Amino acid sequence: MSYIQQGTRLFRKTSFAFFSAGFNTFAILYCVQPLMPEFTREFNITPTTASLSLSITTMVLAISMLIIGSLSEVWGRKSIMVISMFAASVFCILTAFSPNFHFLLALRTIEGVLLAGLPSIAMAYLGEEIESKSLGTAMGLYICGNSIGAVFGRVFSGVLSDYFGWHIAIGVIGIISLAATLIFWRSLPPSQNFKARQLEIRELSKSLIDHLKDPSLICLFILGFLLLGCNVALFNYIAYVLIGKPYSLSQTFVSWLFFIMIIGMFSSVWTGKLVEVHGKQKILFLNLLVALIGVCLTLDSNLSIKILGLGLFTYGFFGGHSIASSWVGQLATQNKAQAASLYLFLYYSGSSVGGTLGGVFWSIFGWGGVIGMNVGFLIIGLILWALVSKIEQHSKKATKAA
After folding, report:
1. N or C: which end of the chain has fewer CB atoms below 10 A?
2. Cα 345 to the chain's mean position, in Å?
3. Strands (E) located in 99-185
4. CA-CA distances (angstroms) from residue 332 to 2, 167, 257, 321?
């Protein structure tokens, strides 16, 4: 088998293609997050209900990935990714014409199904085509595209909605996503190491269960759930904090605050390089610790310290996700798309649960309740890190003994 190596032209083309793919997916997925206060006002709904515009999309995406990830083992990788990106962009444009919140939720549900065609297959493609030494860097660049798309979708839609309304904002995001789809289609080389399997539901179900019997994979799956749950809860409700008293900031200013997620671009790439030198275990622990410190700092009433806390959390979040997702790709020796699908199923389920559960804590306890929930999530994440590290050490000792 021939693998794509770092430093080659093919590696650059592949990385650029997945950078564009990550941009497309996350711009569409998160463009509604800064618009939640707008939905609350225009449709006369609560913040928790407004959060469904994101939560319902991520939940449907999570469920759909389990199915589409398994089907890609039969149908192939690139064609499914291209079709899903194109269709998701079209439905994003249609969402701009939503006459009410129920119609908007229906279209966002369909988008969740369509967006599922990319993330789990992307991880499987990279795991199959990129040499193991370069996988950390390639995954970091893909997640870098995710962070840029998430930042652009949030900032651009928030600022544009302040001047032209949320309808125009979402429509323009859809048009830009179409351009990103074209770049992906033209840049990504066809799979070289993919071997199609026959559609055997029984066999696919068995391999899915096998992944769930691996304690290391289970720890990483739950860690992904907790990480994105923290992220979405934090950024869903920080807008309500800053728009309200005593800050009384404008929608435009709050939208620009999402630009802080650009830190994820540096965090994911730098983390990939640090892992190559110091190993996954040490760097994952440091990222989780930085995220925990950042969350706690957002309790401070000083706006500068609150923003600093958001920045530290963002660094730790993207770095932790980069390590956990690439670790899943390495631990799964077969049916990588399924393993990736399971990780991302829990990951995006965390977005839905954390985003909506955070609304409950927000309604009852305010910002302190949201932070308390996040601190609990991250402490559990550190416990999971300890477990998977211990399992890894035992595995290495057993291998040496053998």
Report:
1. C
2. 11
3. none
4. 20, 42, 37, 17
pLDDT in tens, 238-291: 988 998 888 888 878 888 888 888 887 778 778 878 887 888 888 999 999 999
Asked if residue 246 has a cis previous peptide bond (ω within 30° of 0), the answer is yes
**380 token code pair:** 């559990």
- Show the domains of the chain with their CATH numbers: 9-189+199-397 (1.20.1250.20)
Q: Per residue in 302-358, pLDDT tens?
A: 999 999 999 999 999 989 988 898 888 777 766 666 777 788 888 889 988 998 899
Q: Report DSSP state, residue 34.
A: G
The span from the CA of 347 to the CA of 314, in Å, is 16
Which tokens is 16 given? 């650029």
| Distances, alpha carbon 381 to alpha carbons 120, 288, 289, 291, in Å | 22, 7, 10, 11
DSSP letters of 258-279? GGGGGHHHHHHHHHHHHHHHH-
User: 369 is written with which tokens?
Assistant: 């309740």
